[in-house]
Amino acid sequence: MKINYFLLFLLAPIALLASGGEGSGETDIFPRAVNFLIFASILYYYVSGTLKEWYIGRKNEIATKLDSIQVKLKESNSRKEIALAKVEEAKVNAKNLVETAKKEALLLAEKISQETDAEVENLEKAFQDRISIERRKMQRMIISEVLDEIFKEDSIALDNNEIVKIINKKVA
């Protein structure tokens, strides 16, 4: 590439000094084009290295940022998958908890029902016992009244058979 520049510099004076005269009606477009090419070549020679370095640096910086963004994207995708797995696990746990709660509610209702039935039976038994106690009390009271009446009235003379009959009538 440096050889091309060298040749361009050697041939430049020939092209610049060659003129056909002033009165021939020719324009100076060709020398101006050559001058522009020389200027562009010199500018390219001095600026191209810096521009290439800047371009490569910028390209590497963008690649580095892109790589870091891809790493972050992969991390966020893995976190998303973990979060989705936890959500699914939480749904399963919630479903199991609901089922367990329903089973416990049924067991508790059954236990309460059994306890209530047992309590009702105990109350009925207590009621029946109370009735029998009250009957005995009434029988004793009636017997006591009958005996009191019999013994108060001395005029009535009864034998044992008649007393038993009277008591049986009152009791029944």
From TrEMBL:
The keyword Transferase does not apply. Keywords: ATP synthesis, Cell inner membrane, Cell membrane, CF(0), Coiled coil, Hydrogen ion transport, Ion transport, Membrane, Transmembrane, Transmembrane helix, Transport. The chain crosses the membrane at residues 33-51. Residues 73-104 form a coiled coil. It is found in: Cell inner membrane; Endomembrane system. One of its GO terms (cellular component) is endomembrane system. It holds the Pfam family ATP-synt_B. It is a single-pass membrane protein. One of its GO terms (molecular function) is proton-transporting ATP synthase activity, rotational mechanism. InterPro entries: ATP_synth_b/b'su_bac/chlpt. F-type ATPases have 2 components, F(1) - the catalytic core - and F(0) - the membrane proton channel. F(1) has five subunits: alpha(3), beta(3), gamma(1), delta(1), epsilon(1). F(0) has three main subunits: a(1), b(2) and c(10-14). The alpha and beta chains form an alternating ring which encloses part of the gamma chain. F(1) is attached to F(0) by a central stalk formed by the gamma and epsilon chains, while a peripheral stalk is formed by the delta and b chains. Belongs to the ATPase B chain family. NCBIfam families: PRK08475.1. F(1)F(0) ATP synthase produces ATP from ADP in the presence of a proton or sodium gradient. F-type ATPases consist of two structural domains, F(1) containing the extramembraneous catalytic core and F(0) containing the membrane proton channel, linked together by a central stalk and a peripheral stalk. During catalysis, ATP synthesis in the catalytic domain of F(1) is coupled via a rotary mechanism of the central stalk subunits to proton translocation. Component of the F(0) channel, it forms part of the peripheral stalk, linking F(1) to F(0). The b'-subunit is a diverged and duplicated form of b found in plants and photosynthetic bacteria. This is ATP synthase subunit b. It comes from Sulfurospirillum barnesii (strain ATCC 700032 / DSM 10660 / SES-3). The gene is atpF.
